[in-house]
Amino acid sequence: MITIPPRYNPKQSEEKWYQFWEENNFFHAEVDSKRKPYCIVIPPPNITGILHMGHALNNTVQDILIRFRRMQGYATLWMPGTDHAGIATQNVVEKEIAHEGLRRQDLGREKFLERTWLWKEKYGSTIITQLKKLGCSCDWQRTRFTMDEQYSLAVTEVFIRLAERGLIYKANYIINWCPRCQTALSDEESAHKEVKGNLYYIKYPLKDSGMDYIVVATTRPETMLGDTAVAVNPKDKRYKKLIGKTVILPLVEEEIPIIGDSGVDPKFGTGIVKVTPAHDPNDFEIARRHSLYAKIVMNPNATMNQNVPLDYQRMDRFEAREAILEDLEERGLLEKIVPHEHSVGHCYRCHTMVEPYFSEQWFVDMPKLAEAAEDIVKKGKLKFHPPRWKKVYLNWMKGLHGWCISRQIWWGHRIPAWYCPDCKRAYDAAHKGKALLTERIDLLEASILVSLENPKFCPRCGRTDLKQDEDVLDTWFSSWLWPFAIFGWPTLDKKQSEELKYFYPTQVLVTAQEIIFFWVARMIMAGMHFMKEAPFSDVYIHGTVRDITGTKMSKSLGNIIDPLEIVKQYGCDALRFSIISLVATGQDVNLAQNKFEGGRNFANKIWNAARFILTNLDKEKAKADLCLSAKDITELKERWILSRFYQTLDNVTKSLDNFRFNDAAKSCYEFFWHEFCDWYIELAKKTISSKQTQLVLYKVLEKTLRMLHPFMPFITEEVWQSLPHEGKSIMISPWPHVEKQFIDEKIDAQMQRIISSIVAIRNIRSVWQIETNKNIQAEISVASQALEKLFSSCASYIKDSARIESLKVGRNLKRPKGAAVAVLTDVEIFIPLEGIINVEKEARRLTQKRYDLEKLLEITDKKLKNKEFISKAPKEIVEREKEKKEKLKDSIKKLKDNLKGFHLK
RNA sequence: GGGCGGUUGGCGCAGUUGGUUAGCGCGUUUGCUUGACAUGCAAAAGGUCACAGGUUCGAAUCCUGUACCGCCCACCA
């Protein structure tokens, strides 16, 4: 007798088997010309990352796909790695040194980077360790980091190649500036949020016209210090005559022109807009059209700079706002204040309000790169799942501006550009004030050299101490190369080029919707440009993990559920199975702690079913015939469970092929629990030692474990290892084949009749409160010889499952006196319970049943009387309705006949 | 301003090209120390599929509109 604990102990198996898999190198993949490749690149988590439910969902999906394909025989590679996460990591290290009272400037660039590398060594792989706790079968030997030496080379190379083609350029442009991080951000890194503010109506006196003034409306009065014009719409009759006149900018007391620009909306505010080219993207565009000068009025930390009147200098932007409003008020220049809601960009890292800021930055020419990336998706060669994201993607591609890639931080890939200080200064001086017109800076003219190595001298003046650009590249400028840079591109040795050729393009990318623009779109661009092929053929976009009220989980809200805590409490398989069952394609998932009980209970069910089978398995018998054919199985219950198993397997395989993970999980669950355990194992108890039962118990369990393995890797391995098996691990065992010979719908229908009959009897027992252990008698009256045969041969199923002591099966039997009745299609069941049942109550029960069926009959009848239905509906539908009608009629008649026998008063 | 998603029994959700008596999990009720499992077993109750029109022989499913909730995009001074 084997003793197995009644409860599954996840912790123990998780540790044991994960180690076993790693030791045996099962996660590792090599180029194998005999097999097809299947590759997924992990969305590299930030080194600052701490595992959250989003990761749990994202990586469970990937691991399921990877394990599924691995079992199917693909050369399966899941490439792992981490992202250096420029701003995020720098912020973390800055916080750390702040405890020592230091700022990064105190350390200096070199020392600060040393600290950051140390931090990375210490904490940077936390997330990797955590991913292992989820059971992820990544090829860890190949783990990459976006700042690895070779990877960095790819980044630099890409920068140079794009710069050479003019696809990367330097320009004076208005960008998003985070005053706290003190760096430029891309459009995507500035997250728009609705902010309740005010619209301030400010009077600008007209020059040379006494008391006359015009009124502009603004939400950010502090920027008025940088106004270089006032604009009206030239079609606006009210103000047309103002164009060409001059106003005196209050507080600054400078003369600025009134210009006409069609971008001005006459309906908004007063229809007159102040133009601040250096601090508003809209105004910047106006300024370019009118060759206006851009006056920067803020320092990088968003305090007012030396270009504003002394009183406001060094004030914070919001402080300055208050001061300016007060001063305007005092001068009678503040007309009114109207509450106004508008959306304002916020830094996606620190949530500080972003300032539009005019500055010199590096950009990628996105519209150019977008062409091929747009095309490949339009053609359908790259598919999104669910498909609605295609539209979102294409729409984004259409509206692209330049991508600002320079960041004024230290942690990251330093821009491979060098300046000659003299020549650059000369260039700047020559272009001062013209900057708006000459948006792109001519690198040659400005003596900016883009190259892999530090250039020896300035080609213009010969100076030898050239200075490297201080800025680093946007983190996403390295992650967009991920699918090919991880293989060593572009400096490939022989092995690497083989691998790149074999594994690129990869198969699927799994990610969340908020990453589509940041990363997915850009990877497609980079892939198309550098590899001439999209980096993957399918993109699976999963939903966002939320709490039970539908709020996004976040640390600051305190509504997070820690996946590792769930693993500890419920087990990894429970976490995986629960989360995957909840996620319908692309739908968000609302989680609560108790949602994981389902997965835990399922794991426990698997454990106990296996426990039962193992304790009863005669290993010799089970092993005896591993390749049985359908002919060897004669018993209904055995044929049925095999038929159901292969149907389920077929379902699960197809669902996984189509990224329908919840369907797959539900099929497994339904089959295992409600068919295999509830019916088959229960029935099998009576024939446990028969060869057929032994074979089928073993065969179905073993194959079901394999089917479940991608979802629940640990418990399936644990159980599988205790069963007779071939091979070293379930994770490298083959995905079962759908053996069609076992699928038999007639068998399913027959078994269904038996099951329905058992349920009907149990129902009667329950209604009349017959004690569970009390044996009763039953008579089953059937309509045909075939049914008589079926019920006779399955009499034992019914007797065992419904606790029937003696069962009589016959044709057209009459209801014994005082018997309870159940009417099923072509079957009547009588349970003699004279004295126990209440005749009137039983009659009411049957009448209710009859009433229900009559309602159905009415609907069916109506359909069949409808000539259009008969002529227009497909034949098989009509046929089905006809059959249904006959069955209903028959059942109703039987109910009526039985009711007659009750002789009610 | 534009786009997208959601609205199905008390709660959380499935429902693939329109066609079974609309399913599942949790919860609820009743009964069970049935020899794998009380993280269990058995039986049951509970829904006019947000609303209004339309298409169709037939609509939870397709179309139009409305309401509410949520998300994304946009140069809304």
Q: Briefly, what is this?
A:
Helix content is 44%, strand content 18%. The strands form 10 sheets. Strands 5, 6, 14, 16 and 19 form a 5-stranded antiparallel β-sheet that branches. A 4-stranded mixed β-sheet has the order 10-11-9-12, with helices on one face.
Account of the 3D structure:
The protein is 44% helix and 18% strand. It has 30 helices and 30 strands. The strands form ten sheets. Strands 5, 6, 14, 16 and 19 form a five-stranded antiparallel β-sheet that branches. It starts with 9 loop residues before the first helix and ends in a 5-residue tail after the last helix. It binds one RNA strand of 77 nucleotides through β8, β12, α8, β13 and α11.
According to DSSP, the number of beta strands is 30
Extract low-pLDDT stretches.
none
Average pLDDT: 90
Span between termini: 61 Å
* Radius of gyration based on Cα positions: 37 Å
The coarse overall form would be: elongated
Helicity, in percent? 40-55%
Give the structural class: alpha/beta
Strand content: 15-25%
Number of helices: 30
Largest sheet: 5 strands, antiparallel
